[in-house]
Design goal:
alpha+beta, two-stranded antiparallel sheet, elongated
């Protein structure tokens, strides 16, 4: 055999070395890719909370710009003009005649919390209704809680939530990790 015919393939040792290098790279890369998925879910919740906070702040700004000092069920100049705000200017519902309590607090329930979500966020917002919503809504007293569903951690100690306090306008995220 000539020298050209003997050098046509890889030796077994060369193949084992390449496989070992690929295994080492995979051992370091796979956990990082898994972590990226978790970071993407966290970023989604934070971005949604930011959009909700911006919408709530814009509604309050429109209430102030309109010169209002009392609760209203038609916030002119914001969205369709159907947003209901409390006497403190914070969104409390989107349809109907609910205008909040006399002291500015808001008795929130899941329906009103859904209406706030739909009233201050744009049409391409994450879903809160349907067969597989992105968030599940609960509401009690003056607080709305939106629990993130997409990462499969809802109902566990690691679930992610956005809370909206309709009495103060505060938006907070909770990520138990």
């Amino acid at each position: 055999m000539s020298a050209k015919q003997r050098n046509k393939g890889f030796t077994l040792i060369e193949l084992v070395v390449v496989i070992a290098i690929l295994a080492i790279l995979a051992a370091f890369a796979l956990p990082r890719f898994a972590q990226l998925s978790e970071e993407a879910h966290s970023s989604n919740v934070k971005a949604t909370a930011g959009a909700l906070a911006a919408g709530v702040a814009l509604a309050k700004a429109q209430w102030v710009a309109n010169g209002l000092t009392a609760a209203t069920d038609t916030l002119e100049g914001f969205g369709d003009g159907d947003l209901n705000v409390s006497s403190r200017g914070w969104p409390v519902a989107y349809t109907g005649g609910y205008t909040g309590e006399a002291d500015g607090t808001a008795a929130m329930n899941p329906s009103r919390c859904e209406q706030v979500w739909e009233g201050v966020l744009q049409s391409n917002a994450p879903t809160i209704t349907g067969t597989a919503p992105d968030y599940v809504v609960t509401g009690a007293d003056s607080v709305c809680t939106y629990t993130y569903q997409v990462d499969g951690l809802a109902g566990t100690a690691d679930e992610k939530n956005i809370t909206y306090d309709a009495s103060t306008g505060d938006i907070e995220t909770t990520e138990n990790q």
